[in-house]
Each structure stands twice: as structure tokens, then as C-alpha cells.
Amino acid sequence: MSSDRRSYPRRVATEAGEIEFRLMSPADEAAVLAFAQKLPVHDLLFLPRDISEPKVLTAWIKEIERGAITSVLAWKDGTVVGCGTLVRDPLSWSPHVGEIRSVVSSEVRGQGVGRALSQETFALALGSGLERLVVQMTVDQTGAIAIFEGLGFKAEALLREHVKDKAGKSHDIVVLGHDVAQVRAQLEAYGLAGAVQH
Length: 198
Fold this sequence. Notes:
With about 200 residues, the protein is an alpha+beta fold.
């Protein structure tokens, strides 16, 4: 994955103050676990695994080392306040498709951190050469849905009662998609080929 085209750390001003973006590494495991364990369970339902579990985080680190996952951490005052992840599986039937996952702590929610993190993860995805991107979340995460729609994602599927929380309650998941290849082709037709680069 060509995440090396973007340089880190990057700093961005938000209403929550200055946020620093850095690529996640094995050294960040404890800080990310502390971040994940403070998140409300509902915020984790769109993820395929519960990242607040240490064994899941260990597997995540292994996937980063293997190159299947690139994660960007949002740091504020030495603490992880958000994580944006690009997942791709070059050995699957969909090596041209990447999935973006993004979550921020409740302390900085509504202050532009989620938007900045989603934009940063999207920029990473655009630089990776993928043709399609997808993102999924519970249908009540209207703020996150609006952020991704603003980036050009469109609703493609509704998965009814697709996940269950720890209390056994079912929740619907919405899947949004972005056809990067089509957008790139349209920009090239207008002579703007570099516009979807970082």
C-alpha cells in the first residue's frame, strides 16, 4: 500500500484544538487500546470486530505490519482521540476495493475532528490506487454519514438487523460507496488528472 506518498506527522486545526495525525505503529498498541476501551459500545458496532479487546488489537497490529491495513491516529495532547483505517485485501476477489473505517472519541465529537480524520483517511485511500471505496456505519450515525456524503460517497445498501450489541439489540447498517475510478476518469476528461491525488 502506498501510504508513503503522504508524509506524517500532519497537523490540523479543529474546534477541539490542534490535532496531529500519525500512522499507527506497534508502539501505539496500548494508547489505541485505551482509546477503544473508552468508546461507547454503540460506536464500535459497524466494525467487524470489537477493537476494545486486546487480542483483536494485536491482530490489527499484525495486519498493519502485513500491509493489509493502514491506520491513521488522531492525537491531542498525547492521547489518541480518533482512528481512521483503510482496509484492503489483495488476496480477495475485490483487490480493487478498500474499506474506510473511522471513529473518534466522544470528548472531541462535533468539533471537526471526525471530519478532518475522515478526509485524511480518504486522501490516503485516493493515493493507494484503489478503484472503489466503501464505508459502513449504523443508520443513526447521521453526522458520519453526512461527512462521507460530502466526500462523494453514496448510499448503496441497507443491511437490516446486521449487528447486535452486547445487550442483544439488533441494529441496521448502511453501506456507502465511492467510485474512485469513475471520478478519476471524469477529472482526466476535463484535464484535471492530478485532482484526486493527495
